User: Fold these one by one.
Assistant:
Number 1:
Amino acid sequence: MASRQIEDLHPDLQPLCREFLSRCTAAGVEPLITCTYRSGAEQDELYAQGRTKPGPRVTNARAGQSAHNFSIKGQPAARAFDVVPVIGGKPIWDASHPHWQTMGRIGETLGLNWYGNPRAQFREFPHFELAKGYQ
Ligand SMILES: [Zn+2]
């Protein structure tokens, strides 16, 4: 199981993530973190999905290539978190729901790279990543 713990994020991303969550709540959006850190083995398992295993393709990254796989001195230090808006206990995966744009705006205001932005290298609405420049 991939981690959902904020403590498994990069030290610079942890306070940004906490601020992101509280700003979302203040804006009337209930965010649910679905993934912070993912091990190399978990990443490879995800990569196999839709290729050598059944299911839809959900990632183009192999082990070590995803910002979720990042570690510092062997400790999880993911450079990205995935988050979905929840309404009445149900995750809203439909990216056309306005809550996604609210979350995206909040993340970008905090300097995070939001992959729901049309300028992202590929679209992945739940994915918020620490900007380059953080070691
Ligand atoms: Zn992600």
Number 2:
Amino acid sequence: MPTYTAPLEDIRFVLFDYLGVDQASHLPGFADMSRDTIDDILNGAAAIAENVLHPLNRIGDEEGCHLENGIVRTPTGFADAYRTFCDGGWNRLSMPESYGGFGVPAVVAMAVNEMMTSANQAFSMYAGLTGAASAALMGFAPDEIKRLYIPKMVRGTWTGTMNLTEPHCGTDLRLMKTRASEQPDDTYRINGTKIYISGGDQDLTENIVHLVLAKIPDEHGQVRDDLGQVNLFLVPKFLVNSDGTLGPRNGVTCTAVERKMGIKGNATAVLVYENAIGYRIGPKPEASTTKGATDSPVATTAPRSRGMAGMFAMMNMARLGVGFQGMAQAEIAYQNAAQYARDRLQARSISGVKNPELPADPIIVHPDVRRMLLNIRSFVEGARALGLWLAMENARARAAQDESVKNRAQDLGDLLTPVIKAFFTDMGFESTNAAMQCFGGAGYVRDTGMEQFVRDARILQIYEGTNGVQALDLVGRKLSAKGGRAAMTFFQLIHSTINTYSADERMAAFIAPLKTAVDRLQRATMWFAANARAYPDNAGAGASEYLRMMGITAIALTWTELAAVSLRRIAEIESGTPGRRDFYQAKLICARHWMERMVPETAAQLDRIEAGGENIMKMHADIF
Ligand SMILES: Cc1cc2nc3c(=O)[nH]c(=O)nc-3n(C[C@H](O)[C@H](O)[C@H](O)COP(=O)(O)OP(=O)(O)OC[C@H]3O[C@@H](n4cnc5c(N)ncnc54)[C@H](O)[C@@H]3O)c2cc1C
């Protein structure tokens, strides 16, 4: 059976050594964030992740969720664990104190969420989606809705869901058929079917707050295939009285729970809305005359309904969370693979026997096994630091007076959100797969639990917008937004890091590959600028390559910074400061691994991008 030990030493390295979170008391929300306080939070989170959530991970996978007499039953132990989780306040760390949360900075809460996800992804999704839903309500709901719903959601008494997908409409939300008919009392009646809704029904809480996208028909009762009519609605499973008590059951029913590949402990529900009472969240959409308008991610001018603002806010937050889920799955898979590689005896090292007293050497002596382990580890540690750095940039930007600092964080967040979602989850899947490979046949059979990580990680590349669509968002929208300002900001950031360390010989092994990566990325960006407008399929054909290139480059930038911190710490330890030298030396090895093994991929990516889309588009659909 797999084990999980929260990677506290590395999380502390990122939070304290790299980001100086404990030195940021001048930032809003950071005043109480001393090192001791953060340590207490991390230790508490590690305990519940290791001792409460992780033991349920396999049970959730074995049992799954079942619809019984109209009620969805979650796996044995989930309901008790959910209560323990919420009683401890782990669901609401970063929620505002005004709603009953703890106001802990997002950078710390993200580190905590990582542990919960590694321990049990399916379980942690119930609370994760509730957090995103309550954040959308905080931003866009009328005051009365905020008063009635948010405190209960923050406490975890009720959970939240997001409902976009319909049987004929996943990526292309224009095609949505769910309708919202306005009533004289300003409420709406929602009719339609939503599928694949995570946590769409469960037996953990007394009520569920569904955030639902639906179209408000025009004055002729018609709905069109565009986004102009789409709006966001709150539809509770049980109606809520004005004193906060529960009223009668609303017209939303779970008609099925999907049987699926992974995250079996999370109920993926089909929800049928029949005259369900809904409340509009956010402004009414403007009357739109743009029939057939497109929301193709490649079209930069596509109209979007103002009414979808709440859902987009929720989705952006969820995308970063999903990226972190990819890293978290890779972390637990790595831990188990590294342990197995130390224990499993097979063959002798090709450079000479390493353990003559044993009948064979442990497989960790083999370069190919080490290659797999280092691929995973250099991704996990680089991704963790990059994600937490972005959260810290946001915190700094919120406090800044200077508009340019705010813009910088906003630009980097906009640009890197699709990258974190897609690259982290692609790498998360590759990593769990590589970790399973380290086990040989023992990874493929169920007993070791390694194949569950692969199955659980696979969904991350699909939900919250498929990774292909994230790439189109990056290339079609984010690169050209505000005259390309975000990409310029990213490139400047990298060049400034290169300049900072270029005189330091010890940094040469990191700076040279970083420069190569950013040069290639800039060349690819210019290629799109020159070749995508006249022939948009050039952008579509190269988008996924470009996103991966940007992900590799962003982590190369992060590893360069982490290498500099590690060199500094090693020098301090050598002059007598206490510390674990081997920890920082391992950082330098991982940094070099990323530069030597991942950055070279960017050459092939550039070639593929510059090959364009013509040949890809040539073959007739019938011949495929
Ligand atoms: C376990 C699970 C949980 C989920 N949870 C939720 C949830 O909580 N709420 C919710 O609303 N939805 C949820 N989903 C739905 C999920 O977000 C969608 O499956 C996803 O957005 C893709 O939509 P689709 O399945 O209709 O695929 P499609 O949109 O049909 O896409 C099929 C393929 O075509 C590609 N494609 C489509 N359009 C383009 C384009 N313009 N350019 C290039 N490629 C394109 C896609 O990348 C994909 O590879 C969940 C799904 C699953 C399986």
Number 3:
Amino acid sequence: MPIPKGPRFGLGTTLSYIRNPYGFFERSVRRYGQPFGCHTMGGPLVLSGRPEDVRDIFRADPMIFEPWNTDVLKPVLGSNSVILTSGTQHREYRKLLIPPFHGQRMRSYAQRMATAAHDCASKWHEGEDFRAYNFTQSVSLEVILDTVFGVTDPVVRSGLKALLPELLNLGNGLPMFLKFLRLPVVPSWRRFIAVRKQTDELIGQLIRDRTSSDDRGDDILSMLLEAEYDDGSRMDESEVRDQLLSILSAGHETTAIAMAWTLYWLHRHPEKLNRLLEDISEQAPTGDPEALTQIPYLDAVVNESLRIHPVLPDLARKLCQDAELMGCKLKAGTAVGAVAFLTHRDPEIYEDPDEWIPERFLDRKFSPFEFYPFGGGNRRCIGAAFASFEAKVVLGTVLRAYRFELLDNRPLSVERRHITLMPRGGVRMRYHGHR
Ligand code: HEM
């Protein structure tokens, strides 16, 4: 059962995949068609962006899959993370995690998301240059601290604000990939252990305080503490901690990147920005955050940014048993991946796929195998509704209130950040004061 033909995954291919993933996907498809196979350091991998192959992956029995190459995340996320588990355990965790992220629940977070956007924007001075990504990252962290962790104590809050981004950064260091470097003499590993210990202490305290208090908030942590397995039992402290860090790591940078791209594209196309501003002044004249989320053009703008630059360009899972998928008989141990970048740029689905045209999302509905920035099947993003809601509130709020100029007014390439792809350089902008 050989895998389909594809590029030889030597050092050169690995580097090209890491440095220029778009180029790697495009060259592979031109040469080998889809699906194509590669031999990676993590074992054989079969990739495709054809909707029928994507459907095969997302519709397959979830029990035939386990996460692929996620061991590197274990030191940060912990072994109970929903991202790292598979089979029944993974299904159980999703059952506990999905309800707090239900679309309806997001409405109660709208005002706090808008406040976070204004608070972070209030640090700008007129004429000042900034990177859109740094701004959206700060907003997204504030939102997670408010709505997921529910931290109100200023000391705990400033502690977590300093520690969490550092933990995520250290979690991308070499010792995560090369286990033999996990030694106290290696400075980055030593620092990682120290930061992880401090973070665990703060989160542990937060969990214990919340458990012992009668005053539960409407934050996601409070809901996770109340969530019950089928037998009526609840997650213990270490399970809750691992889910919190998984939510943070899956939700913080992804949402920030999506918002930064959207700011970039809107300012590259001033006519689209003007149309959006008109729609905002008609459909959400007071800037009411919830009303912003109901504006169809704002939704289309966010979706089009996620289409043209999916934050995670490919989504892989490993087969834990032999299976027939994408027209190939594959052996256990082979990984299969849906390449959102290829699907989202397929000219058969999207006319002028390299152009940013939000209107296409008003004219047509795309299937979950044609447009899937949040993945699909049993691993589909738990925070999809949350992320899209937040992007609309934050972008609607700042665009309505402030004026910006794009300083990177040229095509931007992508830059790898952990497993995500962000706009290279972070989108340089200038702040021009209130509208
Ligand atoms: C624009 C922002 C976001 C994007 C593009 C995004 C994208 C994704 C993708 C592609 C996956 C993997 C899906 C798959 O393998 O099929 C995923 C998983 C996940 N995402 Fe998101 N995400 C975003 C925001 C969020 C937010 C805000 C949260 C939570 C607050 C979140 C929580 C998760 C979790 C927990 C998983 C793991 C699900 C599992 O393994 O069962 N994400 N996300």
Number 4:
Amino acid sequence: MKITAVGGYKAVGRNMTGVSLDKKTIVIDNGIRLDTLQIYDDDTDMIRKCSKEELIRLNIIPDADRLKNVVAQVLSHGHLDHIGALPMNKPEVPIVSTPYTVEMARAEYKQGNFYAIEYGQDIELSPNLTVELVEVTHSIPYSSIVVLHTAEGDVVHTGDFRFDDHSQVARTNYRRLRELGKGNVKVMIVESTRVRTEGKTPSEDVVRIMLKDVLEFIDKGLIVTTTFSTHIERIQSIIDQAEKIGRIPVILGRSLSKQSKLAQRFGLLDLPQGTNVFSRANAIAKALDEVEDSREDYLLIVTGHQGEQESILSRMVNGRFQFRFKHNDSVVFCARTIPGPLNAASKYILETKLKSFGVRIFDNVHVSGHAAREDHRKMLELIKPEHIIPCHGNMDMRSSYAELAEEEGYRINKNLHILTNGADIEI
Ligand SMILES: [Zn+2]
């Protein structure tokens, strides 16, 4: 079989991998690179203005045309760095994922030929080639480990993961992973974003305790929280804690509103009766007018944890609504600033403006959604692949994964392979 590294094998983002055998290719993931996009444009208008060739040249989307004889597109989960390039790359083949991820992908790319499958339900992509999705914990519901069962053995693509045995929205199917490890896994393609961090990534339970600690501590002013709109478990924890401290939760912002509605439909998010969720600018402005008069009664959940210019938090601080922050209001960042000079600059500007109003800042009420070094070792022990290809990381991250694999007995260029974007390898 041939594995082609299309995107995500040079820097974090625009993930895509091709698996080819018998003159048929399966594509795994189809993502965009968000930080590069931001350099050129603060909103995503650029995606509509640029040609596909320009987006590839600017390293925003993967060069899917490199892959020939594609018979199916499989998606590991719904983060934009895994599904966001679907509208530009327009796969004309069946697009396969869990029902939840399919709904997210359909919202990005309406014309797709989507097939939703449940965990553990094998479907045939071509003769002698079936796909199976195995449940794993990450920071979005319905993340999958993608398994291709082929005549030459199994291909396991871990997608993004962490091991969180206290998650309230997902479970890792250890039993199935162990079974796969006892079989014939020819190659494991594995994310490497956080492999340089020692130990284990903490559970989302840790964030629940951090949130309780911080939100019970704040005893005056308006509380504004901000987090990833796809992190449904985190949003639920914020809502639950708002109720416990007797504040009315209000969700503001287009992506938060879209993702919470989807999660509610799938029974993953339980909003208290009458919780207001607003996405339109005039409805948000009206809600903020109400909040302004009785600010100690409310807890807002808004977009803008990275200081994105068009987010609700930036618009609130920049006076784009009637609303004004006041001394003793608090902003709780339930996220970490994504590494990179651009994000750091946006966050710095946002925090400086907030402080100028006398707003108190609580940063980094957060744990990562990605596996740390010992999580990776555990995955390796479970899957026991013959060959390993680290993906989803810059050279540092993928080399660091290679070091870990060497500790476990793998040898570089023998059964451990470092590829860069555009390269392929016959296994
Ligand atoms: Zn992800």
